[in-house]
Design goal:
The complex is a heterodimer.
Chain A lengths: L3 H15 L10 H13 L3 H6 L8 H6 L4 E6 L5 H19 L2 E4 L5 H9 L5 E4 L1 H10 L4 E6 L7 E6 L21 E3 L5 H13 L13 E2 L3 H10 L4 E5 H9 L8 E6 L7 E4 L3 H5 L3 H10 L6 H10 L4 E3 L6 H9 L5
Parallel strand pairs in A: 1-2, 1-3, 6-7, 6-8
Antiparallel strand pairs in A: 3-10, 4-10, 4-11, 5-8, 5-9
Helix pairs in contact in A: 5-13, 6-7
Chain B lengths: L3 H4 L10 H4 L8 H11 L5 H12 L5 H35 L2 H8 L3 H15 L2 H12 L3 H26 L3 H8 L4 H40 L2 H10 L3 H30 L13 H24 L20 H5 L3 H30 L3 H16 L2 H8 L7 H27 L2 H8 L4 H10 L3 H18 L11 H10 L3 H31 L2
The chains are: A alpha/beta, B mainly alpha.
């Protein structure tokens, strides 16, 4: 390879630009430089427009500020606007409670959050059941900090567009009515939007290849699932109960367009997970102070009330790794944990 | 040599009945695709597509949204610029190291050049997205990851092109200088430097356009910048905010393309009879100044982005390789995956290569038609294929055809621009002659403009098909689309054994494809 023919063809792309057109007036000569430089300088606007660490590559910005910054994050299970409202509040509150700088680092997908936790770019992450187990298996010594009161028995809701003609049902066997329909999960790594629903579907005798087109879709998040099912792009989908209820409440889910079909049995879901080395970095006893701080959030405090409302919970409760055994087992069954 | 294929008129081509139809041939793929398409439409999301199209006219003008988009755009541009500068530096060094002429003159033997060339095939064969995702695992979420992900494959590409250019140059001047006793480095620089410059400059500029597209794409997969915003806004169906970002990106892309084109013309196509020009060395000074401006510029942008090369030193091994399940890797449906990937590549390539001339013909020579065409092709170049794929899923069932449409649309934008601009280079003479002789405007376009460049265009199409094979990985989101889909699935299961095997198969496939498209290209260019 790599002979004249190759280069000729590669060069074709460039001939484009070399074509002779009207020559430039001479006074434009200096402008060439100015234009080239100024275009190249546009990236410098970054700190002006966004502040340091705006956009995504931010995990780094924190590192350069020293390791005394607690970097928190979360799996992107809902609309970015909501996450961007919630987690800066959490960062503010934790910072006040613990006396350290706390920074929220947004993530674009579930596996990215797990990876960033493994590489040590995130200190405290709000994981789902499955991603939490994945994170702990990849980072030995990672600590389960806390879960919400609703996470010990969390539910998924199967939903359908009203246009699909699907009707609500009470028995798990009713899931068979989804065979041959266009169906979407949330993220591939979501516990309430994929893992457990797939488990319940399998129990009811519905295989993934039974859906229309021979495979389910993956919308990416719970909000996206609701929007896609409402629009009719998918006949049915599955979301977590807390997002479903809050979407009904704030009008994002329109009952004339999308309805609930069935509520799944309960399982363990979301939890905070922390790096094993927080005590070394922030001082002895920091991990337990962190746990206590989160467990102390109460609706009586106006700011904490706002946070708890956005989390859809009354309070956080202690959690332990052992309660996620079932999630790990199901994860292994469907090949998401190895 | 760089202008030879298109600017030479081929008088014989008019006598060959096949020549004008040649570039239209791949468009035959439209027949099966159009036949299958109705079966794929589920039509559930017309509502969403309507909202998406409407939002193009009413993008969000909320200052917060615009500011966020600008900040994202700045990061994307910065990543592109840094990756590009690094790839040029890397490419020049490696290109010299893999040039036969350089080895011959400096070391007296040629074989190390061939060795280095083969080694460089590997980094080149892996798509920048794969580099990004792998580096992300090795060094964590650092801005330097995106820069390196662009710099590695691009550097290897630049090296290959540079070495090819060097070895293809006339060596008589070099021999003359050497036999007159000039030392090797000086002789090389003096004899080969000036003739090398045009090819290198124009290829370098073209890589910057590619780097902008790559940086946007890397963002779609979570490496930061505007791409990340685009993906998130699309996923949450905030179409008006999505269009704010898309319009800004379009403006930057077109500005960059225009500016680069202008610089190329200015530096490489001096007007011969322009006596007012500032004498010898004027352009050289500009080039030198710009070249000198690049390193400090890179430093500045690097600081602004927080790029820290030291982060590369704190690498971590991939997890879970010790417990690798190679039997499980072997059990993957490899044949099906590879077949799916190849089918996807062929479909997308045929669509892109065939549609560009067909659309040009249908639009005709009129101003309006061409304007619409230019715009739709610009959108094709602009939209990262995974976004197009996600949009298509609102209407179509997932699968190879949907993925091919997304990939084809993007490459159609790139090929279309090439076709349009090189068709302008052919010159109006033949077309006007045909028109005067009474042929219709479209027929004149076909015979007068398209047919002289049929073969070089197809040869470039073969090269592009090779690029598309590498790119199939980015439309894996659409499902059932070969190795790319399996790769995303394996990534989200953190199955590193599978990921490494998939990357290796990808590399092998691309290398084989490269060899094949090289041959096809050579025969196309030699065939006339």
């Amino acid at each position: 390879m790599g002979t004249g023919g190759t280069t000729q063809a590669d060069d074709l792309a460039d001939i484009v630009g070399q074509s002779l057109r009207m020559p430039m007036p001479i006074r434009l000569r200096a402008t060439a430089m100015v234009a080239g430089l100024s275009l190249a300088l546009v990236p410098l606007l970054a700190p002006l427009t966004g502040g340091p660490g705006a956009g995504l590559p931010p995990a780094l910005a924190q590192q350069s500020q020293g390791l005394k910054v607690l970097r928190i994050s979360a799996i992107p299970d809902q609309k970015p606007e909501k996450l961007n409202r919630l987690y800066p509040l959490v960062a503010q509150e934790l910072s006040q409670q613990l006396g350290v700088t706390v920074k929220y680092v947004p993530m674009v997908d579930y596996p990215a959050a797990v990876s960033a936790f493994r590489t040590g770019d995130l200190d405290l992450v709000w994981f789902g059941g499955l991603t939490g187990v994945q994170a702990r298996l990849q980072k030995s010594g990672a600590k389960v900090v806390a879960q919400r009161d609703i996470d010990a028995s969390f539910n998924s809701i199967f939903i359908a567009s009203t246009r699909s003609g699907l009707q609500p049902f009470r028995q798990q066997k009713g899931l068979t009515s989804l065979k041959g329909r266009r169906f979407t999960f949330g993220s591939e790594s979501s516990t309430s939007g994929r893992l457990m629903p797939q488990y319940f579907l399998t129990q009811a005798g519905v295989k993934l290849s039974d859906f229309a087109d021979g495979a389910p879709g993956f919308s990416g998040s719970h909000d996206a699932t609701i929007a896609l099912v409402s629009s009719g792009a998918y006949d049915a989908g599955v979301v977590n109960e807390q997002v479903w209820l809050s979407s009904l409440k704030d009008g994002k889910a329109n009952p004339t367009k999308v309805i609930a079909l069935w509520k799944s049995p309960g399982y363990q879901d979301y939890h905070w997970i922390a790096q094993p080395n927080l005590d070394q970095r922030f001082g002895k006893g920091f991990s337990s102070r962190l746990t206590k701080a989160i467990l102390a959030w109460r609706p009586s405090d106006p700011k904490q009330k706002q946070i708890l409302e956005l989390f859809g919970a009354q309070k956080f409760v202690p959690a332990s790794a052992s309660s996620y055994g079932r999630i790990e087992q199901v994860g292994r069954q469907i090949g998401k944990i190895r | 040599m760089s202008t030879a294929p298109l600017s030479q008129p081929y008088p014989l081509a008019l006598l060959r009945p096949a020549a004008p139809l040649l570039p239209l041939l791949p468009a035959l793929v439209l027949l099966p695709v159009l036949a299958l398409l109705p079966g794929l439409v589920h039509g559930g999301g017309w509502d969403l597509i309507g909202r998406f199209a409407l939002a193009a006219l009413t993008p969000s003008l909320d200052p917060v949204v615009i500011q966020a988009a600008l900040a994202g755009l700045a990061i994307t541009l910065g990543m592109a610029l840094l990756g590009w500068i690094a790839s040029l530096a890397l490419g020049v060094v490696l290109g010299l190291a893999s040039s036969r002429v350089v080895w011959q003159v400096c070391g007296g033997c040629r074989w190390p050049a061939g060795m280095i060339r083969r080694l460089l095939a590997l980094p080149r064969s892996i798509h920048e997205l794969l580099w990004g995702l792998l580096l992300l695992q090795l060094v964590g979420l650092q801005p330097v990851v995106a820069v390196l992900a662009i710099a590695i494959p691009y550097g290897a590409l630049v090296a290959r092109v540079l070495a090819d250019l060097l070895d293809g140059l006339d060596s008589r001047r070099l021999e003359a200088l050497r036999s007159a006793g000039a030392p090797a480095p000086a002789a090389l620089l003096t004899a080969l430097g000036p003739p090398l410059l045009p090819g290198l400059l124009s290829y370098g500029g073209y890589r910057l356009e590619c780097a902008l597209r790559s940086a946007t794409l890397l963002g779609v997969f979570g490496l930061g910048g505007l791409g990340t915003d685009l993906k998130l806004t699309l996923q949450s169906l905030e179409f008006r905010e999505l269009w704010t970002g898309l319009w800004l990106l379009l403006a930057v892309m077109l500005t960059l393309e225009t500016l680069l084109g202008w610089l190329r013309r200015r530096w490489l196509m001096p007007r011969r009879l322009d006596l007012r020009r500032g004498g010898v060395g004027g352009r050289g000074r500009e080039m030198l100044l710009l070249l000198l401006a690049l390193p400090p510029l890179a430093l500045l942008v690097g600081r602004a982005l927080g790029v820290d090369p030291q982060a590369l030193l704190h690498g971590q091994p991939l997890p879970g390789l010790d417990s690798a399940d190679w039997a499980g890797v072997w059990a993957l449906p490899w044949l099906q995956l590879v077949a799916g990937t190849l089918l996807l590549t062929l479909l997308a390539a045929a669509l892109a290569v065939g549609l560009a001339p067909l659309q040009l013909l249908l639009a005709g020579p009129g101003r309006w038609g061409q304007g619409v065409l230019r715009f739709s092709w610009a959108l094709g170049r602009l939209w990262p294929p995974p976004l197009t794929a996600l949009l298509l899923l609102f209407l179509l069932q997932p699968g190879v055809i949907t993925a091919a449409l997304a990939l084809g649309f993007h490459n159609l934008g790139i090929l279309g621009r090439l076709l349009l601009e090189s068709s302008e280079d052919v010159g109006p003479a033949v077309e006007e002659a045909l028109s005067c002789a009474g042929s219709g405007p479209r027929l004149a376009l076909l015979y007068g403009r398209l047919s002289p460049m049929a073969r070089p265009y197809l040869a470039y199409g073969a090269y592009r098909a090779d690029v598309m094979l590498r790119e199939t990985v980015v439309v894996g989101l659409v499902g059932a689309a070969g190795l790319g889909s399996q790769l995303l699935e394996s990534l989200s299961a953190f199955a590193w054994d599978q990921v490494l095997a998939l990357v290796a198969v990808y590399a092998l496939l691309t290398l084989a494809g490269e060899e094949l498209s090289d041959r096809l290209r050579r025969s196309l260019l030699a065939g006339h």
